[in-house]
Amino acid sequence: xxxTTCAGCGATKPGPDGSPTDVxxxxxxxxxxxxxxxxxxxxxxxxxxxxxxxxLAEMPLAxxxxxxxxxxxxxxxxxxxxxx
Length: 84
Ligand SMILES: [Zn+2]
Ligand SMILES: [Zn+2]
Known about the structure:
The chain has 84 residues and is mainly α. It has a domain at 34-71. Helix content is 23%, strand content 5%. Strands 1-2 form a two-stranded antiparallel ribbon. The longest helix has 11 residues, at 61-71. The model has no long low-confidence stretch (mean pLDDT 76). One zinc ion binds next to loops.
């Protein structure tokens, strides 16, 4: 069962769209109002993501994998994930 409700604003996707938010609730979606990035403190929105996201998106996939490997993985699991 896909999770399609945004954790940020509660907006619900009409259905699974193949993105990671089918499995993990999205923290922010394109329906969210602009939010303040907890990492860099800049304002971020679906249309104008802060520097954190932009730098990651523009990074070649190989570099992203290296980054994740160096840090021992990238935890995208929500902290309030219900236990099975
Ligand atoms: Zn949202
Ligand atoms: Zn940021």
